[in-house]
């Protein structure tokens, strides 16, 4: 499984990777991007199975990243890992094509349960 983690914080990308490994994705190949523009470049150069993205980032935020991704015909499973976890944000994310939204702070169990419920394995 190839997973892209898009977040402007290197530390947060490392935390998400660690949680994913502990949630059972220890054999995954991880790629990183610091914003949505870098994420789009990674999508074009890798055959990704999952994208996890922060919402608020410079250059291109996660929501615009998702909109651009879908407008280009990419259907890779996409979820947000963000502190923006209001019901309105979740609805906006789902309408744009996100499968889930994991709110910060999070646990390994939240990752495991959310990804299992989304059918990501």
From TrEMBL:
Which InterPro entries does the UniProt record give? CheY-like_superfamily (IPR011006), Sig_transdc_resp-reg_receiver (IPR001789), ST_Response_Regulator (IPR052048)
The alphabetized UniProt keywords are: Phosphoprotein
Which part of the chain is the Response regulatory domain? 2-119
Which PROSITE patterns does this UniProt record tie to the protein?
Answer: RESPONSE_REGULATORY
Keyword Flavoprotein part of the UniProt annotation: no
Provide one Gene Ontology biological process annotation.
phosphorelay signal transduction system
**Positions carrying 4-aspartylphosphate:** 54
Any one Pfam family here would be Response_reg
The record's section on Gene3D superfamilies has: 3.40.50.2300
Q: Which residues form a coiled coil?
A: none
User: Which protein is depicted?
Assistant: Two-component system, chemotaxis family, response regulator CheY
Identify the species of origin: Ferrithrix thermotolerans DSM 19514
